[in-house]
Fold this sequence. Notes:
The protein is mainly α and about 70 residues long. It has 2 helices and no strands.
Amino acid sequence: MKKIFFYISAILSLILIVNIIQIVTTDFERLTEYGFGYLIGKIILFGIFLSLTLLTKKHIREKEVTE
Length: 67
């Protein structure tokens, strides 16, 4: 079950970082107040999914070492 969480959160993290980079590189000058809120929300979601990925990776790696 933890492997499923790991892979889903890793994929979502990659999608979010690509989206964040795309917004910053192409649309940063056109962002309005709501656009900055959208960008900050994406960054927060990226942080949550990245931390979930790192936490589940640690547990998966510890489980493989003990077996």
